[in-house]
From TrEMBL, chain A:
Belongs to the GPAT/DAPAT family. This is Phospholipid/glycerol acyltransferase domain-containing protein. It is found in: Endomembrane system. It is a peripheral membrane protein. Its main location: membrane. One of its GO terms (biological process) is ether lipid biosynthetic process. GO terms for cellular component: endomembrane system; mitochondrial membrane; peroxisomal membrane. InterPro entries: GPAT/DHAPAT (IPR022284), GPAT/DHAPAT_C (IPR045520), GPAT/DHAPAT_LPLAT (IPR041728), Plipid/glycerol_acylTrfase (IPR002123). GO terms for molecular function: glycerol-3-phosphate O-acyltransferase activity; glycerone-phosphate O-acyltransferase activity. Residues 154-283 form the Phospholipid/glycerol acyltransferase domain. Keywords: Acyltransferase, Membrane, Transferase.
Automatic annotation (TrEMBL), chain B:
One of its GO terms (molecular function) is FAD binding. It comes from the Eukaryota. This is Alkylglycerone-phosphate synthase. Homodimer. Belongs to the FAD-binding oxidoreductase/transferase type 4 family. The lineage of its organism: Eukaryota, Metazoa, Spiralia, Lophotrochozoa, Annelida. It comes from Ridgeia piscesae.
Amino acid sequence: MKPGEDLSPTSWVKKDQPTDVSTMAHYKDGGYEDVLEERRHTSDLKYAMKSRPDVPRYKYCKPRTPAEIKTQVLNSDRLRYTIEKISDATKTSKEEIMKEAGSILDDMAHNLTVGVVRSVAFFLIKVFKSIFSRIYVNKEGIQMLHRLLHEYPVLLMPTHRSYLDFLLVSYIFYEYDLPLPIIATAMDFQGMKFFSWVIRQVGGFYIRRAFGSDTLYWAIFTEYVQTHLRNGDAPIEFFVEGTRSRTAKSYQPKIGMLSASLESYFKAELPDVMVVPISISYDRILEETIYAYELLGIPKPKESTAGLLKARGVLSNDYGSVHFHIDNPISIRLFSSNKIDRVQHALEPRYINNLTAQEKDVMVHLARHIVRQQQGHMVISPWALMASVLMQSREGILLRQLIKEVEWLKRQTSNLGAYVNWPGNTSSESVVQHYLSLHMNVISISETGLIELKLVLPSHMKKPVADEVMLNAATNLILSSYRNQLLHVFVQVGMLSLVVNTSPQVTMTMEDLYQGYVFLETLLQKEFVFLQGETKKEFEWAVLTLNHSGALAIKDNHVLVKQSINKYTTFFSQMFEPFLLGYWVLCQYFLSLPGDIQGKPLPRKPKNFTKEAQKVALRLLQENVIRHYEILSLDLLGNGLLALVEMGCMYKDKRWVSHSVTCHTRSVTRHT
Amino acid sequence: MADANEPGPEGKRHLVSNNVSYPAIKSINLEECRAEKSYKLTVEQKPSSIPKRRQELLKWNGWGYRDSKFVVNKNGHVEFTGERYRLSNTVMPALRDWMINTVGISLEHQQPAQPELTAADIVAPIVNEGFLEDMQRTGISFTDDPQDRLFRAHGHTLHEVFILREGKFKRIPDLVLWPVSHKQVQTVVELCSKHNVVIIPFGGGTSVSGALECPENEKRMIVSLDTSQMTKILWIDEKNLTACFECGIVGQDLERRLAEKGYCTGHEPDSIEFSSVGGWVATRASGMKKNIYGNIEDLVVHVKVVTPRGVISRNCQVPRISAGPDIQQFILGSEGTLGVVTEVIMKIRPLPECQKYGSVVFPNFEKGVDCLREISRQRSAPASIRLMDNEQFQFGHALNPEVKSVLASFVEGFKKLYITRIKGFDLQNISVATLLFEGTKEEVANQEKRVYEIAAQFGGIPGGEENGLRGYMLTYVIAYIRDIGFDYYIVAESFETSVPWDRVLDLCRNVKDRLIRECKERGVQFPPYATCRVTQMYDAGACVYFYFGFNYRGVGNPVKLYEDIEMCAREEILANGGSISHHHGVGKVRKRWLGQTISEPGLGMLRAVKQYLDPKNIFGNNNLMIDSKL
Ligand SMILES: Cc1cc2nc3c(=O)[nH]c(=O)nc-3n(C[C@H](O)[C@H](O)[C@H](O)COP(=O)(O)OP(=O)(O)OC[C@H]3O[C@@H](n4cnc5c(N)ncnc54)[C@H](O)[C@@H]3O)c2cc1C
């Protein structure tokens, strides 16, 4: 028996509604429906050939071929204007620049072709059926999209945790007769001839990761995106986090794609634009091992076709279920009303690139808002709860204890408003066991029943990493990436707990508590996504939450510190402790730097900075001063560095770090 | 004291005909008419088509002539009554279904207007005794008759007409005055200044910007200075092709009487039957045939204005002048805030030899706009081009007269065309341009050829003369249709803007989208009707005109709802690079956007002029730049 077969999240239905088994089995609460269910009983070929009759189309759309789109881009006012300008400035002939533009566009453009889409669907469905037990989709979201896509141009913004993300989006859109999106893809794939070709045919278009001040490239890219938006040829999909999150936490959002697209709205070329965030939650992430090594700074294997195919070893693996949640649309018109004044663009031709400061501000705001909305609809896997408990049980934990802790954490998670994917009337033991079986690659169970971390040797590494610490760290980072899936739920109460737990006083005023909270939010600003101007509100919410659950004792507007150090606050603090430790290491490293004649440390590149700080961390781990392997994560160290720069602890040329912050950090982490 | 003038037979006219609109009585011997002044033609003076007691000829609570209106007849069909228009006295069987299907009216649900208001219902006037005594001595005609005062308390915005139908104005003029000459106007302005009495000039009363409404909080006596008795054509100068008009003459009288001498001004706003020369100047009006004759600012050679500070005038009657910033431009569009325009010298033209309608059918609105843009680029526009969107084209359906009618139906005409010649056009998408050519026979022929050639490049196919003519007819009829809508819970209004060419299509689409969306979000239960047309074209842009209405059954306070939605639409227009107004003006309803439109220093300029000319705010109608605190 495949482990967990009868533990599937919907198994309870069979008992409760025996007559409805066949139709109900793939539904579950939250309006989710398993897309794979029907596919398991029908021919994949038929599926790939199915007709897609009522695909909604934007009501003002004029159908065009990919080739026509290219021509229109090259003949656009924006391009003509840009080429003229470049030609004047560089004394290059317009024909030459036009030629360059043509080749940039060739590199960029998608070539969405139904035939290829069908073949890919045929292939994908096979893969999905073999690696996933269920792919849940919220039906309401689908219905909403059917209406929305007719009315307005749509930007799809899924979370980005895996290469599978965009394949899933296209697959689900194919499945539900929605128009296939075109997808902004980084150039990473272009090395792989075949995949790169396939991706173009299913709607992928390529953008360079960095094109800075290349005005020609920017013009082509903007026009290419906007022409699709204006005509509504297809929904446009891109990842607001910019790239796949290696940590399973949301990355700080980027606004490049947003500003390229929304300019169209700001300049009133469109009645509105709808942003639809999509939250994709995995029980187990395909790339978990690769990510861990990347975080440690071991160069990621080039994403070559061969590499991916080898990853087909994964096909025999079980990756559990996926939840695909289509969130409510965000109307850009409503979101930006009263924040911007579109009239400001009335005096210039619209193809001249000039967004106002308010517009840029709105987009930063919006990007964060999108991420938060994505997070709000992430489905918390029981494994994320288990990982959180396991992370805090360095010596291993017995199954019984694990179950108890997980049940406790599950309640806390629900109380904070997150949706935990916990099957109805299945015993907690079987749930926990099911998820253990899914993640045996990072877990070992000893003879005595002690559950603990296991060392991994990544399959793609020829030479194993010599240092045992690094190996442990890799396993640990995999595990921590699952705990990370929980952190956005707990970050506010976690920061609050940290302030209380590290307070040397007996009582604390609310103002002190708030100041401590603000400091932590500033410190962790690159680690988590906070909303501008909402700090106070979120703080108050966290206070209320902890107070009501009995974790935070407040009397006469003072926090009673001793009573407030308890299981809750301790657990929540420890969830975030590794970050503070990592930052502390960073500070230690800064302070240890040899100075110049005035005693100021010599400037270095940020990359070297984190690399060297990592060495310090490694030593501390080897000497057993610190036992949190996460401090080796270059992502964590990098975030810390950026936050310290932002806080003004270091100059832009990254010279020195102020003493006070180090002390402060130390004080925050004193209790470890 | 009202001495009503019944309209003569001229009161009745055919708005649209295949010939020139105004009878060209060429038989008059010009030599005979020549007065002492060598080239100046004196003109026999005739009373205005509109009587002093306007309500005897015109609806007191709706648009136009009392005898002309849409009614549901005993067979349950919609009929247009009266005899004045080509559509008069015809039954339009499709109109009822259109109203039911498009805006969701139901014949069972009616919202009748209140009965005619009597003296008891109308607020008592504020009286400034000293002023009244002085007035009596002047011999200028005036009245405090409540109904006369009520008639001059409003223009024709939805808000105003709705009050007439269902409510009460908080403030109306306290007295109506009928000066008959520039001199008398001077006297009135002097007396008002002396006694601190507010003057609101009243021309044809067709304002659609709230400009005529009395400021609610005005404690001083308000007089309505009705210009309707100043209708003389003072002279016609054939050498210079100019004529001098008193401000109160309304468009139809002016053109009819000029036509008797073989001339026209060519200024034809859609309100031509009722709006006056003074009103045109005061609002910067725009006429249908501006492509040939120009808008009012192009037509005006000289204006004479009575302000509290004195009379503004130039010392010459010249085609152009470089004498610093143009003071006349301060008067054009001043909306009664600075003084009374009393006499206007305008350009005139010999009546055109030939006038011809035409039409073009485009596969869709976008192609139509592209075509107009090209015609404008080539500067080959005929006297008038109007491009209607599909919704408006469909409205043509609704006005199909009964089959028995001599007129073949508007849409039937197109349908036939569609079947016989333009297969592949989708009736749900097509867009129609109506055209009016004027000039010598040759010129018209050349223009036609040119326009149809350009149209062909954009997939446009000539749709015939009859269809063009009917298209223009719709314009006049649409003004009347709002009143029957009111009876069935429909509120409707039009608004307009000007916009650069590159934004025309986006603006049309976005504004319609916004209107529909706002209705939905505000709980309107029935699909709204939102439609537009491009009515004027310029080198650098176009004028776009929207009609918008919805069925308010089931939602409260329709006027407020309408105004909120129109406000959103105007904000959308501005965001789309459109203007606050192309020709309706600012008045009170668009005041809130004036500052951002002309910038704060710009507003300050206007206020400084106001402050100088009218420090006591005698012309205190609260329009435009007038700061309520002033
Ligand atoms: C059905 C309909 C169609 C219309 N079509 C057009 C059109 O095609 N083009 C267009 O431009 N407008 C149009 N309008 C708007 C309106 O007709 C114009 O604004 C017109 O110029 C107003 O003239 P009036 O004589 O009716 O002025 P009124 O409505 O009486 O007054 C308008 C404003 O001008 C002031 N005023 C009037 N006379 C004088 C004077 N002698 N001296 C100083 N101030 C004065 C008034 O105080 C008021 O502020 C239309 C309106 C309607 C209802």
